[in-house]
Amino acid sequence: MAKQSTNQDRLNALAQHSLPEPFHSHLEQVHKICRQMRDHVGLLGMNLDFTPDGRFVGDMGELIAALKFGVTIHKSLKGGQDGVCSVTGKSVEVKLRTQANSIIWVKGVPDILLVIYLCPTSLRWGVVYNGPGTVIQDTQFAKYNERHGRYETSIPKMLAASEAMLLQDQPTTLILHQVH
Predict the structure, then answer these.
(1) Nearest to 17 by CA among 56, 69, 55, 52
(2) For residue 157, what are the CA distances in angstroms to 20, 127, 152?
(3) Phi, psi (degrees; rounded to nearest 5) at 97
(4) pLDDT digits (tens, 9 = 90+) for 2-34
C-alpha cells in the first residue's frame, strides 16, 4: 500500500498547472455535483463513485494538449491518435487519468504519447509521460493484448518510462513542448 501512496504523492507533485477558464470553474462545479450525488446515495446505503471519467476526462486531456502543447485535435475519432503536433506533423495520442493506478489502453503506436494526470482534489494537472509512442512496445512498460487488439499500460509504468527516458537523456525530437 505504501507504493500506491508514493505514486499518488508523485502524481500530485506533478499536477502544477491550472485548467484554463472557464473550464476550471466548470470542472469544479462537476466535482461538487459528484460529491453531492455520492452523499445522497450514501444516505440510501449505497456506495457509488459518480466520478467524471471516460470520454469526459479524455476530452479534457485533448483540450490541454491543444491549448498547452499546440496539438491540432482531429475533428473525428481516429483509433490510436487524437491529433497531430502543429510543429512536426507527428501523430499524438493523449491520455488523461485522475487515479494513481489507472490503466491506459492505446490502440496503435502513435509518434508521440502524452499522458496527463489531473488531480481530483486540486483539479490541477501535470505531465506523466511526454515522449515517443514506441514506449508502449517496450515490455518493461506495457504489454499487447491480442484479444482486444491494444496495448495496455498504467500510470505507474508511464512514470517509470518517463524517468527512464530522462536518465537516458533521449533526444527531444518526439516530445511536445508547452506553448503559452
Answers:
(1) 69
(2) 28, 13, 10
(3) -130, 155
(4) 555 688 888 889 899 988 899 899 989 988 988
**What DSSP string describes the chain?**
-HHHHHHHHHHHHH--EEPPTTHHHHHHHHHHHHHHHHHHHHHTT--------THHHHHHHHHHHHHHH-EEEEEEEETTEEEEETTT--EEEEEEESSTT-EEEESS--SEEEEEEE-TTT-EEEEEEEEEGGGGG-TTT-EEETTTTEEEEEHHHHHHHHHHHHHTT--GGGS-----
Name the pairing type of β-strands 143-145 and 71-78. unpaired
Assigned C-alpha cell, 2 = 505504501
Rg (CA), the chain: 17
The sign one gets for the Cα dihedral 100, 104, 110, 116 is negative
Residue 94: count other Cβ atoms within 10 Å of its Cβ: 26
